[in-house]
């Protein structure tokens, strides 16, 4: 293992662009205000749809959920987060980070606290914790974030492709997204291809020279993850994780009386999650909910079921992850400061 080194512009204790000292508190307050505002807007939109549909019908569906059902939904979400956390640990170990499973899980899960903040702050927070505990600079840990995002894209693209093969209908809208997700993951997980594309882009356009240099450096670091066994095991963990949440959505729809089939439910959940991410909104807020309700409606599910089902699955996935992150965040901050 090579000796950790600081980046050219970043010290070992802070991620790039992460404010410290007096600037930190205003930014934290802004992020919390944004998180609360987004949550309030989504609730307002769902409440409006529920009112238009009829509160009695919506509340009737919600009343079908008992404690056991809610626990099952949350447990399936935990399966997703746990498997993806193990995948993060595998990638971190492959990168050479001198951290154990506990620390890597703490970083991964704690980063969820910032899931709905702008600019992928959750990933910067993870890098800051790593930098404090290991002295590794941003440029050296950036490939870890890149391969993690690529693995999620690959898993979700493969799930969409499988759903298209086994579910009736839905080809027109899901196939392009599946191909896009798989294509992007292939590019990112093929270092030579990614570096070559960056070089050709710069030679053809002359644009973004610094960004293209960073892409080439990141591509060089991604070679550490190109081992077939590493990629295969990581792909399996990602598939099982996202299937768990898709299965939760399938169960939820069944409890509400909407029998659209397992593969169709998984397809709608994964597609809506990807569509929300493509909108650029933090956490896919707004876009994911709109896509999910629209796709359920297109499949014959009435708004009296589509609206509460969407609200419940988003609370038990995205917002549950944020609560987990908020619970772990203080511990991650304290432990990282103690390792300086």
UniProtKB/TrEMBL annotation:
Keywords: Cell membrane, Membrane, Transmembrane, Transmembrane helix. The chain crosses the membrane at residues 32-55, 61-83, 95-114, 153-171, 178-202, 231-253, 265-285, 305-329. The keyword Membrane applies. One of its GO terms (cellular component) is plasma membrane. It holds the Pfam family LPG_synthase_TM. It comes from the Bacteria. Residues 1-25 are annotated as: Disordered. It is found in: Cell membrane. It is a multi-pass membrane protein. PANTHER family: UPF0104 MEMBRANE PROTEIN MJ1595 (PTHR39087:SF2). This is Flippase-like domain-containing protein. It comes from Rhodalgimonas zhirmunskyi.
């Amino acid at each position: 293992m090579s000796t950790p080194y600081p980046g050219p512009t970043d010290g070992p204790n802070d991620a790039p662009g992460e404010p410290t000292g007096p600037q930190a508190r205003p930014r934290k307050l802004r992020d919390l205000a944004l998180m609360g505002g987004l949550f309030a807007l989504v609730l307002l939109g769902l409440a409006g749809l529920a009112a238009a549909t009829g509160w009695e019908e919506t509340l009737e569906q919600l009343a079908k959920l008992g404690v056991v059902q809610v626990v099952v939904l949350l447990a399936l979400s935990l399966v997703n987060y746990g498997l993806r956390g193990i995948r993060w640990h595998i990638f971190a170990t492959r990168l050479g980070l001198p951290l154990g499973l506990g620390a890597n899980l703490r970083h991964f899960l704690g980063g969820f606290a910032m899931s709905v903040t702008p600019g992928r702050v959750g990933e910067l927070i993870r890098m800051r914790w790593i930098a404090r505990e290991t002295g590794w600079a941003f440029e050296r840990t950036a490939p870890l974030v890149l391969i993690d995002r690529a693995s999620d894209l690959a898993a979700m693209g493969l799930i969409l492709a499988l759903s298209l093969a086994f579910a009736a209908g839905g080809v027109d809208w899901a196939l392009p997204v599946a191909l896009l997700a798989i294509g992007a993951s292939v590019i990112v997980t093929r270092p030579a291809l990614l570096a070559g594309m960056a070089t050709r882009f710069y030679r053809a356009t002359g644009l973004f020279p610094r960004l293209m240099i960073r892409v080439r450096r990141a591509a060089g670091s991604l070679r550490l993850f190109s081992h077939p066994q590493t990629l295969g095991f990581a792909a399996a963990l990602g598939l099982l994780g996202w299937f768990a949440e898709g299965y939760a959505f399938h169960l939820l729809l069944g409890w509400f009386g909407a029998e659209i089939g397992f593969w169709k439910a998984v397809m709608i959940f994964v597609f809506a999650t990807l569509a929300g991410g493509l909108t650029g909104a933090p956490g896919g807020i707004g876009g994911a909910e709109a896509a999910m309700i629209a796709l359920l409606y297109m499949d014959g599910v009435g708004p009296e079921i589509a609206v509460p089902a969407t609200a419940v699955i988003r609370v038990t996935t995205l917002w549950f992850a944020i609560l987990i992150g908020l619970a772990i965040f203080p511990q991650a901050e304290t432990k990282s400061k103690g390792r300086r």
